[in-house]
Every structure is written in structure tokens, then in C-alpha cells.
Amino acid sequence: MGEIDVDKSLPPQKSIPAPPPLPCSPSRSCSRNRQELMDQPSLTRVSSISTATKNLLDSLFDEGYKADVKISTDGGGLIYAHTNVLSLASAVMKEMLRRSKKQGRWRSITIRGVPPDAVRVFVRFLYSSRYERDEMEEFVLHLLVLSHAYVVPQLKRKCEWHLEKGLLNLENVTDVFQLALLCDTPRLSLICLHMIKRNIEQVSATEGWKVMKQSHPILENTLMDMVMEDDNGQKDRVRKRNERKVYCQLFEAMEALVHICREGCRTIGPRDRTFKGQQPPCSFEACRGLELLLRHFASCKLRVPGGCLHCRRTWQLLELHSRLCADPFSCGVPLCRNLKEKMKKQNKKDEVKWKMLVRNILRTKGISWAHVLQPESLTA
Asked: What are the φ/ψ torsions at residue 173 (nearest 5 degrees)?
């Protein structure tokens, strides 16, 4: 009576399920599969905590079941917490709790300088990594400071992300920039700096900027210097771009000048050749304007340098060509050889200006001094 027959208690043989397969031996294939799993991105390997577990941790914080820590906040507020949770979540709090004097079962720490509600949101995050959207919008700056002070990198990244994705604006960018410098968040500080530079007039009129000007005048001067430097740099880039454009146009004009004097174009051509009336469209964009300038130069009665404005421009183009031309004896451009001889009698100041112009033109087009404009190379 009371004994159980083991054989009769067993189910029939057919109903016995097959045993699970034995774990594979540490062979090469198992090692390879394990390594492949480890090499996968972290998002495919991380398993999030279930909602039930998070609710349980929230209840543990809200109810303070067997709490053994009292956190004092501004205004005389108290927040009850657990030593083990705080110690595991923050190494700074672990050291604070170790140094605090125990009174009965209670240990006490103090967090001041931020609103009590922000401290509560911060401590709740240590339990369940949860926060409400409206709480983050209201206390994002305080949570950023707390996460940095108590070394909670997960919350710090959350604060940075929310600031970058919408909480950062022209009204608070000055405060966020100062906190980003203090809390060692280089990406956030760089974003704030760019926003300040782009909207310096609006930002400098905010209350945060005025407070910074009084409390940190050196930082305010540094920001203004950076804005001015950035503005000057932008103007300098525009100036250099315009200069490069002018140098390219001058180089193209030199090409068109040699093209006109060697082959002829439209109505102007070399004297020793017969001009063909029907010609395909010219590939030199500067040819049309230069041709009109040469036609005026040929018929103008004030052709001397310093006379007509158009003739003066033509003299300058001819002199520029003569300084770029490597073979004035076989060159078909008028006055090239004569202007080469004239260079030797030019004063030093004008000579320096012409050399700088020629150097900039060649540098803009990527041409060295050894390869200057030659009649044979321009129309190849």
C-alpha cells in the first residue's frame, strides 16, 4: 500500500519522446558557428529586457520595498532606493554609498543643484532604463549633468540624442553648448557651435547669451572671434574663387588670341592666309569678344597706351601673351617680339606685378613654368 510500480507507471514505449540531441563537441564547425554569432552586429545579439521585468523594477522603485538608501534633494525631498541597484548602475554612487555612514539599515546620500523631480527621473532610469517623453523634454539638461556626474553613459547618450533630434533650439543652444563643454560631449558641442555660427544674430539676443556674457566673458569673446574668423574665411573663399575664375578667363583669352592670329575666326585672320567664309562654330568662348576687341584696336585712332579704354585692354592682353609665350620669333600674335624687348626696360614694380599675374594664371590651370603658352600647343 503506498508503493508505486515503476514499470506499470511508465507510458508505452511509443509515447516516449525522443531524447534531445547531445551538445556538439568543441569541433571546428561549432567554433566557427560561435565565432560567426559573435561577429554579427550587436543589434542582432542584444536581447532587450521584457516589459514585465521593467514594470517589476519600476514597482520596486515606486514602492521602495526593503529600501536601504535615502537620497536627499533640494527642498527637503527624500527618495528611497536600494544600495545594490545604485551600486551596479553607477560606480560613483557605489563609492558614495561605501563612504556614507550607516544609521541602522539606512545609508544617506545627497544630490543637490537640480530639481527634485529630475533626480527622481534619474534614479528611476537607474532601475529600469525608462523615462517619459515629457520628462525628458523638461529635464534634459539636468539629466545630462547627472548622467555625466554619476557616470551613466546610457542616459548620457539618450540626452544627446534627444537634443540633436529636436530639443536643441536657438533659445537654449548657448546653455547646451556650455554644458556640452563641461560634460565632455564633443559631437553635441560641435552641433551647437555650428548652430551658433549660422544664427549668431538671433542667438546673441537670447537670455542665455546675455547670462553667458556676464558669467563667462572669455567664452563669449572666443565665440565671437570664431564667428568672425568663419565669416572672413568664407569671404576669402569667395574672393579666391572669383580670382580663379578671372585667371581662367585670361588663360582662355590667351588661347583664343593665338587661335585668331594663327587660323582666323569669323572675319579676322592671319594676313598670309585667305579667310574662309564658311566655318564651323568656334570652340573658344572668348573668341567672339576678343575678335570685336581686335577689330576696334585695328581701326581706332587712339591706339597708343593710355588712350582708348578698349585699346588699353588690348595692349594689356598682348603684353600678357608676350609674357606667356615661349617662342616670340615664330609666334603669329602681333607685337609679341616687340613687347618681349620692352619688358627689359620695365621698372621693377611693374615687373613684379606682371610676374605674379602670370604665376597665378599658370598655377590656376595647373601649368608649370616650363610649359607656357606656345602657338603649337594651344590649337593641338
From this structure: -65, -35
The strand order across the sheet containing 102-103 reads: 78-81, 69-72, 106-110, 102-103
Q: Which of 117, 99, 118 is nearest to 109 (CA)?
A: 99
Q: Which of 111, 105, 78, 77 is nearest to 93 (CA)?
A: 111
What 3-state DSSP class applies to 268? Answer: strand
The alpha helices in 183-216, defined as continuous H runs, are 186-198, 200-203, 207-215
pLDDT confidence of residue 46: 40
Roughly what angle, to the nearest 10 degrees, separates helices 309-324 and 287-299? 120
Residue 195 identity (one-letter amino acid): M
- Distance of alpha carbon 197 from its chain centroid, rounded? 13
Does residue 141 carry a pLDDT above 70? yes
Answer whether residue 47 shows pLDDT above 70.
Answer: no
The helix (H) or strand (E) run that includes residue 93 is helix 91-99
pLDDT value at 268 more than 80: no
Average pLDDT, the chain: 78
For 277-306, the pLDDT digits (tens) are 565 667 777 777 787 787 777 778 765 555
Q: Report yes or no: 93 and 87 within 8 Å, Cβ to Cβ.
A: yes
Give the mean pLDDT of 343-360.
Answer: 81
Residue 253's contacts (CB-CB under 8 Å, 6 or more residues apart) are: 286, 290, 317
Alpha-carbon distance of 84 to 89, in angstroms, equals: 9
CA-nearest of 302, 304, 307, 255 to 282 is 255
Question: What is the reported pLDDT for 304?
Answer: 59
Whole-angstrom distance, CA of residue 195 vs CA of residue 170 = 8
Give the pLDDT score at 327: 74
Per DSSP, the chain holds a count of helices (H) and strands (E) of 19, 4
Those residues with Cβ within 8 angstroms of residue 146's Cβ, 6 or more apart along the chain or in another chain: 111, 114, 118, 119, 122, 152, 155
The pTM assigned to this predicted structure is 0.56
pLDDT at 136: 93
